[in-house]
Amino acid sequence: MSNNDSQEIVVSEGTKVTLHFSITLASGELIDSTFEQEPATFTVGDGNLLEGFEEVVMGLSAGSKEIFTISPEKGFGQHNPSNLQTIKRDQFGDDITLEKGLVLSFADAQKAELPGVVAEFSDEEVVVDFNHPLAGKEVLFEVDIIKVEPVVQH
To answer: pLDDT tens track of the chain, all 154 residues?
Structure first.
């Protein structure tokens, strides 16, 4: 083993990856990006990156620049009609001005925060969409792999 070890480490189980990434809708609308800021770092399998996004970067090494199309099934899931909930209007405080697209925060059964988007409303009811805002959408995932290193076991 010399210092000039050309055995490049590729993204795989047991690696820590530092990268710049962006997520864009097919329309060109930018959803998230690290290109103008500090790069992101994740360990393969730590849950910080959705499985479908992790899958496409497997085998890449430092210096790789790629753009992947991620289907809803591999990304944020399909839009699920059962994630639309109808809630009585009087459950919302008078101080809330309802409008379509308004994002509100709810607590789920485990008291975890759950964002919901007002889909429609009347004087009696409010329909709230608890699907991920990107559910059912294909996204472009651009990556620029900066560093791939083995995870140091303690």
So the answer is: 434 444 689 999 999 999 999 999 989 999 999 999 999 999 999 988 899 999 999 999 999 999 999 999 999 999 999 999 999 999 998 888 999 999 999 887 888 888 899 999 999 999 999 999 899 999 999 999 999 999 976 6
Query: pTM of the entire structure?
Result: 0.79
Side-chain half-sphere CA neighbours of 55 within 13 A? 10
Residue with tokens 């009087």: 90
> Which phi and psi (to 5°) does residue 28 adopt?
100, -5
Are the C-beta atoms of 15 and 148 separated by less than 8 Å?
Answer: yes
